[in-house]
């Protein structure tokens, strides 16, 4: 079997084992209510993590996404409050803005040959600052269109709610997986993650691909912002501080290698769900406090990095012997 | 001395320009008065408030010089602050409290250093682990509350004055000077730069790169613990959620503004310190000049962008190309003149 599949299978395995252990202690955790909530509560994280996966697969990093999500919520709330524009148009405008923002960062990274880390750090300040400049208060979204999305759910057997945003997350993950593993763009992303020189020799248009990668991440962050504003029903410039790092953690736990070039988008979904599962377990238990989430996620992160290191060494060893 | 001054000239000019700009909007900015016990004035305030970022930047400069990065410093601040507040409220004396907090910082650095140097994880990922988990650990210590205390000796570190100067200012200046002297008066600085330029080559040349790397991360943890102690003593409380939040990014920014390349290989602590002062002057200046503080982040982003463009290897290559082109033309013209 392809050794590159090992991290992905481990992720899925850990998720299933974890879910089973939780089930032994709290049989209710298998109910469709919990499953539905798991999808709904983590929808915004899942969507932004898909964008992050593509960026990391290309060997980059995008620190701006948390700020972009906050900006999106504030932008939607302010536009709906102060103008008469219909909600769908506002959403489209937002997605265009965030994609353009991502594209601009991609262009800077390529044209100036600067580390993605520092360019997207500037982007992080800029997006958060733009959100602050729009408002410093939390603004409620009372638009009927948003209320309709909020209340759109399918009642699963067992009274679990499969919400529209939960389904959207799964759809985005599937679309991201197709994009990464079945298109020419995806092949370019993987090639770039393997090494820029190699990618160039393979005939990849490095500049265009870099711009597209960060534009896609911006688009996903904008979409995640829409979902987050639906989820919370408001826009707040201080929201989702640190989400970029949670998303990176989800990508790594999902089995994608942070140096780029190897990984699967589906793994990211399981990374997000594993993190959600820890949170759910803590809620069920009630006696453990939420800070354990951070510690456990940190330990999982370490575990996966060590696992990948070990696997890389094993495969290198195998290749040397063959 | 003159050469090192020459190197930080752009940073000094930027700082001077900023001070002039802020003074233009807020004429009282450069006024300093003495009220019988302490100096007061916006400049003194800037010098005091830059303490956390400046302290972090000392450690961060060394880490970045080895081509690394330490994302965990903000979290280590929170941990050290939580440890200090916990120790002082449970009746430890001041020396024991400080020792425990600094030990926590050293332990965090040791952890990061081992992940980077022994296991070979890239620094950004290795320190991300502590950045994620560390805030949880800090919350574990404070049990999720803001741990307050009322020990005046400890509070002195955050808000006391010595000969009218705020104590945090003296602390960060002393730390920066000590570390810079240690780096430049011994071979340590050279060894760190060698490790940053090429770890494998420096190891072959006899530098114990593994030990250097671990030591650098421990220094960063130590500086972060100092910053955490100052921040905690200043507000007389440990806030595990917000202490040091985003300061890792400000520290990196201070180092980069200070003229240090993120690609490592050479460093200037003086530059990083001026970088920290520039950041704090912007923060204070925006407030004093009457801009809403919401503009703060956007202005900072603009500043980073300008510095990025100036530091870009592509641009400097273009500039170099232009310069050679001009000098070639000049020689050609001179030759033609001579010929005619």
SS-based class of chain B: mainly alpha
What is the N-to-C succession of helices and strands of chain A?
HHHHHHEHEEHHHHEHHH
Multimeric state of these chains?
heterodimer
Percent helix of chain B: over 70%
Please count the beta strands of chain B (DSSP E, at least 2 residues each): 6
Integer-rounded radius of gyration of chain A: 20 Å
Q: Tally the helices of chain B.
A: 16
Form type of chain B: globular
> Which range best describes the helical content of chain A: under 10%, 10-25%, 25-40%, 40-55%, 55-70% or over 70%?
over 70%
CATH fold-level assignment of chain B: ABC transporter involved in vitamin B12 uptake, BtuC
Query: H/E series of chain B, N to C?
Result: HHEEHHHHHEHEEHHHHEHHHH
Which parts of chain B are unreliable, with pLDDT below 50 for 5 consecutive residues or more?
none
How far apart lie the N and C ends of chain B?
48 Å
According to DSSP, the number of beta strands of chain A is: 4
The most extensive interface between chains reads: A-B, 45 and 50 residues
Q: Which sheet architecture does the biggest sheet of chain B show?
A: 2 strands, antiparallel
Pfam family, one (chain B): BPD_transp_2
GO molecular function (chain B): transmembrane transporter activity
Protein name (chain B): ABC transporter permease
Main location (chain B): membrane
């Amino acid at each position: 079997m392809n050794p590159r599949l090992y991290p992905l299978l481990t992720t899925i395995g850990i998720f299933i084992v974890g879910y089973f252990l939780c089930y032994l202690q709290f049989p209710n955790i298998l109910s469709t209510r919990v499953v539905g909530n798991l999808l709904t509560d983590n929808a915004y994280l899942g969507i932004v993590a898909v964008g992050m996966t593509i960026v990391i697969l290309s060997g980059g990093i995008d620190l701006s996404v948390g700020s972009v999500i906050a900006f999106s919520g504030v932008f939607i709330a302010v536009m709906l409050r102060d103008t008469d524009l219909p909600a769908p148009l506002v959403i489209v405008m937002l997605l265009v803005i965030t994609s353009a923002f991502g594209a601009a960062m991609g262009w800077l990274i390529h044209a100036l040959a600067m580390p993605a880390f520092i360019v997207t750090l500037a982007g992080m300040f800029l997006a958060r600052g733009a959100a602050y400049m729009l408002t410093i208060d939390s603004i409620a979204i009372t638009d009927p269109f948003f209320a309709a999305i909020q209340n759109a759910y399918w009642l699963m057997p067992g009274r679990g709610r499969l919400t529209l945003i939960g389904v959207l997350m799964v759809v985005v993950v599937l679309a991201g997986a197709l994009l990464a593993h079945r298109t020419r763009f995806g092949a370019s992303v993987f090639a770039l993650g393997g090494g820029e020189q190699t990618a160039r020799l393979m005939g990849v248009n490095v500049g265009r691909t870099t711009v597209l990668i960060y534009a896609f991440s911006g688009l996903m962050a904008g979409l995640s912002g829409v979902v987050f504003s639906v989820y919370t029903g408001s826009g707040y410039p201080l929201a989702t501080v640190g989400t970029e790092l949670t998303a990176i953690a989800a990508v790594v736990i999902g089995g994608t290698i942070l140096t780029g070039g190897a990984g699967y988008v589906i793994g990211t979904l399981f990374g997000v769900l594993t993190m959600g599962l820890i949170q759910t377990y803590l809620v069920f238990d009630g006696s453990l406090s939420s800070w354990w989430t951070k510690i456990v996620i940190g330990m999982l992160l370490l575990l996966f990095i060590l696992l990948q290191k070990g696997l890389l060494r094993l495969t290198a060893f195998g290749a040397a012997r063959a | 001395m003159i050469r090192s001054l020459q190197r930080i000239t752009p940073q000094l000019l930027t700082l001077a320009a900023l001070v002039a700009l802020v003074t233009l909007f807020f004429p009282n900015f450069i006024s300093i008065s003495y009220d019988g016990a302490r100096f007061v004035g916006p400049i003194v305030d800037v010098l005091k408030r830059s303490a956390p970022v400046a302290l972090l930047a000392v450690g961060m400069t060394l880490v970045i010089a080895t081509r690394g990065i330490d994302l965990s410093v903000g979290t280590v601040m929170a941990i050290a602050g939580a440890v200090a507040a916990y120790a002082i409220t449970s009746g430890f004396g001041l020396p024991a409290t400080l020792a425990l907090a600094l030990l926590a910082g050293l332990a965090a650095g040791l952890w990061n250093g081992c992940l980077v140097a022994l296991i070979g994880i890239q620094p950004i990922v290795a320190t991300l682990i502590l950045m994620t988990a560390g805030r949880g650990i800090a919350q574990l210590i404070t049990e999720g509350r803001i741990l307050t205390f009322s020990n005046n000796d400890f509070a002195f570190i955050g808000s006391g004055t010595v000969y009218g100067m705020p104590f945090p200012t003296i602390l960060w200046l002393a730390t920066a000077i000590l570390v810079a002297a240690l780096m430049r008066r011994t071979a340590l600085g050279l060894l760190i730069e060698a490790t940053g330029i090429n770890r494998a080559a420096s190891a072959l040349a006899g530098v114990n790169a593994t030990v250097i790397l671990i030591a650098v991360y421990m220094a960063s943890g130590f500086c972060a613990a100092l910053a955490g102690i100052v921040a905690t003593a200043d507000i007389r409380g440990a806030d595990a959620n917000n202490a040091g939040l985003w300061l890792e990014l400000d520290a990196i920014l201070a180092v980069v503004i200070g003229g240090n390349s993120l690609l490592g290989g050479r460093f200037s602590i003086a530059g990083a310190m001026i970088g920290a002062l520039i950041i704090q002057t912007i923060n204070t200046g925006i407030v004093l000049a009457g801009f809403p503080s919401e503009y703060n982040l956007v202005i900072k982003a603009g500043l980073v962008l300008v510095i990025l463009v100036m530091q870009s290897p592509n641009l400097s290559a273009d500039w170099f190309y232009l310069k050679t082109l001009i000098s070639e033309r000049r020689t050609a013209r001179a030759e033609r003149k001579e010929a005619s």
